[in-house]
Amino acid sequence: MNAREIRVGTKLEFEIINSIGSKIDQSFKSELIDIVSDMEIIISYPINESRLMFISVGTKIRVSFLHEIEGGLSFTGVITSKEKNDTQVLLHITIGEDFKEIQRRNYFRPECNLKSEYRLSKEADVTGKETVNDVRYKKTITQNISSCGACILIDENMPIYSVIDLIVWLTDKRSIKMKYRVIRSIKFTYGNVKKYEIGLYLEDMTQFDQDILVKYITDNVIV
Fold first, then answer.
1. Burial class of residue 29, CB neighbours in 10 A (0-12, 13-18, 19+)
2. 105 pLDDT exceeds 50?
């Protein structure tokens, strides 16, 4: 696999590493902006609380992302240059090694069948057009959930790369809200009824809800 097999617009997460590959700083969220060659990409500069984080040229990083076919992948690379256009600051990354599969144990996904509600988000879709915000939430079931994704069962098809808001009830009194991107839609028949199994990748959630989700996953995973 090489960089040309990643979709422009893919959400990325990277961390700064030392010479032996150990993490030495916090993780940063970014996005794939352009592909220069098989082993060189351009990504958005990370922002924390509306401030650009200082990251120098020559910094070694480990990048992780979700590929719609291969699943969770990661690679290491080096920041070779920075540039600024009319709207944003960009980082040029040279990929330093082959892509590696992220071990599934890092993303425990307990079966759960939790009561949930969903709607299309108002966020722009992959074409750049803003999706219609369907104010009315629709009921669904979340079949499984992890710290980076989920799977829901619904009655309608959802366009790949569209974004949805999802409310999941972990208990009768506790719910969490997340924003997900659709990465898979599988149609099947349940009796005489058509259903769709929708695979989701986490785009955004509050730290408070994330802490609740991590505790739920930890309490419910059988290792």
1. middle
2. no
**Which residue carries 């071990």 as its tokens?**
103
CA 194, CA 148: separation in Å to the nearest integer?
A: 27
Element (H, E) at 106: none
Q: What is the CATH number of the domain that holds 57?
A: 2.30.110.10
Q: Tens digits of per-residue pLDDT, 192-223?
A: 778 898 989 888 889 899 888 878 877 765 43
Statement to judge: residues 86 and 57 lie in one domain: yes
Confidence check: pLDDT of 104 > 80: no
Distance from C-alpha of 93 to C-alpha of 62, rounded to nearest angstrom? 11
The domain in which residue 24 lies consists of 3-102
Based on the fold, state whether residues 116 and 89 are members of the same structural domain: no
Amino acid letter, 129: K
Average pLDDT over residues 89-98: 89
Residue 206 CB-half CA count within 13 A: 7
Question: Could you give the CA distance from residue 140 to residue 44 in angstroms, rounded to a whole number?
Answer: 34
Classify burial at 98, counting beta carbons within 10 Å of its beta carbon; exposed 0-12, middle 13-18, buried 19 or more: exposed
